Amino acid sequence: MEEADVVKALGALAQETRLRIFRLLVVAGPQGMTPGHMSEQLGASPTALSFHLKELSHAGLIDVERDGRHLIYRASIPLMNDLLGFLTAHCCQGQPCLDATTRLDCSHC
């Protein structure tokens, strides 16, 4: 992961509402959520939610898919894992302290 991408992702998460949205989508898993459901859960106005979803999408932290008339948003688990890997790549003075199995794998969800 490039440093510029890390800065963009961390910048997008460095706002309370966007962090809450991202965490909500992580909990939702591969099923994802519609903006209406997120708005209900977070108590955010549709306009504000739309702004924050755009910022998270621009940073690559979320994906969106059209399902008929609905948009389904999902957390980008691979990007999240890359971000966590970048942040911990040189922990423990370069000695491996986590193995590859500690990465979040939602493929079985």
Structure description:
This protein is mainly α and 109 residues long. It has helices at residues 3-13, 16-28, 35-42, 46-58, 77-88; strands at residues 62-67, 70-75. It is built from five helices and two strands, in the order H-H-H-H-E-E-H. The protein has a two-stranded antiparallel ribbon with strand order 1-2. The longest helix is centred in the N-terminal third of the chain and has 13 residues, at 16-28. It starts with a helix and ends in a 21-residue tail after the last helix. The model has no long low-confidence stretch (mean pLDDT 89). Keywords: DNA-binding, Transcription, Transcription regulation. InterPro entries: ArsR-like_HTH, HTH_ArsR_DNA-bd_dom, Metal_resp_trans_reg, WH-like_DNA-bd_sf, WH_DNA-bd_sf. Residues 1-95 form the HTH arsR-type domain.
Q: Would you list the SSEs in sequence order as H and E?
A: HHHHEEH
CATH level 4 superfamily: Winged helix-like DNA-binding domain superfamily/Winged helix DNA-binding domain
Please tell me the overall pLDDT: 89
Query: Quick one: biggest sheet?
Result: 2 strands, antiparallel
Count of distinct structural domains: 1
> Nearest-angstrom radius of gyration?
15 Å
- Output the CATH class name: Mainly Alpha
Shape: elongated
Structural class: mainly alpha
- How would you write the strand order of the largest sheet? 1-2
Work out the number of β strands: 2
Distance between the termini: 25 Å
Q: Classify the fold: give the CATH topology.
A: Arc Repressor Mutant, subunit A
* Helical segment count: 5
* Helical content band: 40-55%
Protein name: ArsR/SmtB family transcription factor
InterPro entries: ArsR-like_HTH, HTH_ArsR_DNA-bd_dom, Metal_resp_trans_reg, WH-like_DNA-bd_sf, WH_DNA-bd_sf
Keywords: DNA-binding, Transcription, Transcription regulation
Domain HTH arsR-type: 1-95
